[in-house]
Structure formats: structure tokens, C-alpha cells
Amino acid sequence: MTITGLHHVAIITADYPRARRFYTEVLGLPVVAETFRAERDSWKLDLALPGGAQVELFSFPGPPPRPTRPEACGLRHLALRVANLDADVADLERDGVAVEPVRIDPVTGRRFTFFADPDGLPIELYEEPADAGANEA
Hints:
Structural class: alpha/beta
Strand content: 25-35%
Largest sheet: 4 strands, mixed
Shape: globular
Helix content: 10-25%
Distance between the termini: 26 Å
């Protein structure tokens, strides 16, 4: 097996218009493609992440809720790398998104925080300045 990177993360939402607005307007992810699949009564929205990976946002009629947060079996959370955590937290709070207090990763020393998408999926912002890789090589 030769894995060359992350292609996409798939998320199922209970309220497609609300989630679409959150991911495109609040998080600012650009739309790659949007398709309605009539045979499944389902929308599929492909959103671009920097570096080429994507978020696939799906709607299905009556999806079951996530059992617990964040220890349910399956995807624990979606982590997004950011260069300026304070600015991004301020943007989220301006949009009415509740953000947990910023914490420090005890292993890496990096700052991070969590917030939830409209369906309660935990999303982490992990601060890693753009030049971090060059300094850690």
C-alpha cells in the first residue's frame, strides 16, 4: 500500500441547508461540486480544503444522531490546521459559534480548541504556523 495523503472526510448532516451555510459561509470552504441524488433523496456537497483534500457533506432522510461526543465509535473529530488560532476563534464567535477555551497540547506545545458543527460534530482548530515545518526539520 502506498498512501499519498488524505483525500476526503465524509460528514452526514440532519439539516443540509444549515450545514451547507455553516461549512461554506462560517468556515469559508469553497464548493467544488454539488449534486442531488434523487434515487437516495440525498445531497452531496464537495468542499475544498487547502492542500487538495476535501470535505464531503451528505444529507440523508432521518439519519440517527451521534451517540455521544466525542467518544463514540467512528470519527472522533475533524481537525483543521490554522495559522492564527486567536483570529479564527474571534471569527467563529462573531458568527455565533460557541468555542471551547484554548488548550495547549502537552506533547507538541501547540494551541488548539474545539467547536461543533450544526449537527454536533466536534471540529478542532490546531494552530500550526505556516513556517512551522521549516523550523522543526
